[in-house]
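hey
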């Protein structure tokens, strides 16, 4: 099979294997850290969490560091991306250990959120660097396959990290701090894995790098503007980013819904709710894996735009059909569909951006991509906070999401990238 052959070729490439190892360790740590935060914020017995509380937490953690995105892009087009992966993961290891200490010391919420924000802010540099570096270790003909394997494997690693976090929490008598320390150790492992790659391997090209950081920071505004102009000239990339942003918005709204259902509607205790959330994450991860398997084949036969349209149309039909009963089993089936659709759309979007955006602008475009990704998620959480009752059952929200998927599908069917 062509997919199996391409996969074998990719895994023979030492640069790709090493970059993949960094991603897997880093995103596994992300999964551990995020589950620890969710357990601390949403499922702590002493907290009566509302949809508005979740929206507030997401806004605090995601919006400020989304503003770092443009700066990350400009710097990624000037700094050695391998060094970003090394020092970024080292810094996250230290900051995560600090978060664990704050949990143990019962620190005030604002200090806890500040620590968590610092960890996630550095994450923008690492994830954008991983995406921008991928074309440096894979030839253009196999970028679709590389994007099917690498980000999806990272998402599965994050899912596995979430499962590992749940196991550690059960074994450590519900200690969120112990889980965060595990995440810190994994961040350190990712930094050490990045050291196995050459300093120049991941780019950018030396003649594109400004000699001084101060000069790079001074040119941030101009760099961001030029990146936006470049994206305007690459209409295919702009359309793909718009479709991905809408898919991420829908994903965010339904994620908050599942959180509230697991916390209040389906279970009677916090530990049962957290365990059911873990099952939902695992089922969604299975959808990511399916997307990685079918997307290269589907893009080859349908084209990128048509495949993204099919995904949106499938979600428009299946999400309300499975989600409106608000029962655990059909909702978990909907989580599988949502994982497949969202990840397939992301794989296609990554490939379009990498193929159509020049290397000199790729770092800042992927940083803008991350910013859109997170702003859409927070906006969806805000919408959910306005529409969801405390138990998470909202027919209106599910139908609004179905309508957005329908709008996306109709637009994408007319796109010929």
């Amino acid at each position: 099979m062509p997919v199996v052959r391409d996969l074998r070729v990719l895994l023979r490439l030492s640069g790709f294997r090493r970059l993949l190892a960094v991603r897997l360790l880093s995103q596994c740590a992300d999964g551990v850290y995020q589950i620890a935060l969710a357990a601390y914020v949403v499922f702590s017995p002493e907290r009566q969490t509302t949809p508005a509380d979740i929206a507030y937490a997401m806004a605090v953690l995601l919006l400020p560091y989304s503003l770092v995105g443009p700066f990350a892009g400009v710097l990624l087009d000037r700094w050695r991306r391998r060094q970003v992966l090394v020092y970024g993961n080292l810094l996250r290891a230290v900051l995560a250990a600090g978060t664990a200490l704050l949990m143990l010391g019962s620190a005030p919420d604002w200090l806890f959120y500040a620590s968590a924000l610092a960890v996630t802010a550095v994450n923008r540099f690492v994830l954008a660097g991983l995406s921008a570096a991928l074309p440096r270790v894979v030839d253009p003909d196999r970028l679709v396959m590389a994007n099917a394997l690498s980000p999806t494997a990272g998402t599965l690693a994050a899912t596995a990290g979430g499962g590992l976090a749940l196991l550690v929490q059960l074994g450590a008598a519900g200690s969120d701090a112990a889980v965060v320390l595990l995440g810190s150790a994994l961040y350190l492992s990712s930094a050490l894995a990045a050291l196995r790659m050459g300093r120049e391997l991941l780019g950018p090209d030396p003649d594109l790098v400004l000699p001084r950081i101060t000069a790079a920071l001074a040119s941030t505004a101009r760099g961001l503007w030029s990146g936006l102009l470049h994206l305007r000239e690459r209409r295919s990339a702009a359309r793909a980013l718009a479709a991905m942003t809408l898919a991420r918005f829908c994903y965010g709204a339904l994620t908050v819904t599942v959180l509230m259902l697991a916390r209040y509607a389906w279970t009677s205790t916090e530990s049962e709710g957290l365990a059911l959330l873990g099952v939902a994450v695992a089922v969604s991860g299975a959808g990511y894996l399916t997307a990685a398997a079918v997307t290269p084949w589907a893009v080859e036969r349908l084209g990128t735009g048509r495949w993204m349209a099919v995904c949106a149309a499938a979600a428009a039909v299946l999400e309300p059909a499975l989600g409106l009963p608000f029962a655990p089993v059909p909702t978990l089936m909907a989580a599988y569909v949502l994982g497949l659709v969202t990840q397939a759309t992301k794989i296609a979007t990554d490939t379009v951006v990498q193929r159509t955006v020049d290397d000199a602008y790729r770092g800042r475009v992927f940083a803008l991509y991350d910013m859109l990704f997170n702003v859409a998620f927070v906006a969806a959480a805000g919408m959910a906070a306005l529409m969801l009752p405390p138990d998470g059952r909202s027919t209106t929200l599910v139908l609004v999401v179905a309508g957005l998927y329908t709008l996306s599908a109709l637009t994408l069917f007319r796109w010929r990238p």
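The mean pLDDT is 83. The two ends are 26 Å apart (CA to CA).
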